[in-house]
Specification:
Largest sheet: 12 strands, mixed
CATH topology of the largest domain: Fumarylacetoacetate hydrolase, domain 2
Structural class: mainly beta
Shape: globular
Radius of gyration: 17 Å
Number of domains: 2
Helix content: 10-25%
Distance between the termini: 37 Å
Number of helices: 4
Order of helices and strands: EEEEEEHEEEEEEEHHEEEHEEEE
Strand content: 35-45%
Number of strands: 20
Length: 256
């Protein structure tokens, strides 16, 4: 099931997207908290504006260096335990929204990732129970001001600017995340091409590790790391993150 958040120019609504990604059937309320019921209204996806499929009420949890090839290209090895950082929910934008490159940085990078959306409040989740707390999955771009990441010595500012966490185009609830192909294109050129099977720490381990530290709330998002091939973006370029059984998240980059 594909669940999108959208607007026709009025208040945001949720809907079910068909398999072709062409039609969206409106539903009542927020599916994270309410039973899904159709309103009877249907729209062409091209006639609505898709929004970020979820705005985390609490937090976005990022995972660093979770692909060995990416850790190597950054000059190190993958950590023995998941390397976590927090991104403010004000960084979240949706498909098509511009990523605003701030004046503080001259080296902004894309990082395509699979994102996990949490479906219920949980704490200290055992790995064998982790899949039961997942609502679904979406595409993410963990945008990073690489120069600030280096100069700050920690990652909050470098990854937390407004618009630095595009999510979308929708949430896929029926997904096997074990071996999804993840492709990133910059102005149509493939720059990242990996598989989720190459994660150092799998999704169950990430949920267990994160929930041992933080209570996870419905709508919280875990970014699961990026494969090799990260690189800079220039103003005016567009970055697409495609995950095989989800879809394509596309965003233009602009200078502040």
């Amino acid at each position: 099931m594909r669940i999108a958040r959208f607007t026709t120019g009025e208040d945001p609504a949720y809907g079910l997207v068909d398999g072709a990604g062409a039609k969206i059937a409106e539903i009542t309320g927020d599916p994270l908290y309410m039973k899904i019921e159709l309103t009877g209204r249907t729209y062409a996806v091209d006639d609505v504006r898709l929004l970020a499929p979820v705005i985390p009420r609490s937090k976005v949890i990022g995972i660093g260096k979770n692909y060995a090839d990416h850790a190597a290209e950054m000059g190190g090895e993958a950590p023995a335990e998941p390397l976590m950082f927090l991104v403010p929910n004000t960084a979240v934008v949706g498909p098509g929204d511009p990523v605003v490159m701030p004046p503080q940085s001259q080296n902004v990078h894309y990082e395509g990732e699979l994102a996990v959306v949490i479906g219920r409040m949980c704490k200290d989740v055992a790995p064998e129970d982790a899949m039961s707390v997942i609502f679904g999955y979406t595409c993410a771009n963990d945008v990073t001001a690489r120069d600030l990441q280096s100069s700050d010595g920690q990652w909050s500012r470098a990854k937390g600017f407004d618009t630095f966490c595009p999510l979308g185009p929708w949430i896929e609830t029926d997904l096997d995340p074990a071996d999804q192909r993840l492709v990133v294109r910059r102005d149509g050129e493939v720059v990242q091409d990996g598989h989720t099977s190459d994660m150092v720490h799998g999704i169950a381990a990430l949920i267990a590790h994160a929930s041992a530290a933080f209570t996870l709330l419905p709508g919280d998002v875990i970014l699961t790391g990026t494969p090799a091939g990260v690189g800079p973006v220039q103003p005016g370029q567009r970055v697409e993150v495609e995950i095989s059984d989800i879809g394509v998240l596309s965003n233009p980059f602009v200078r502040h």
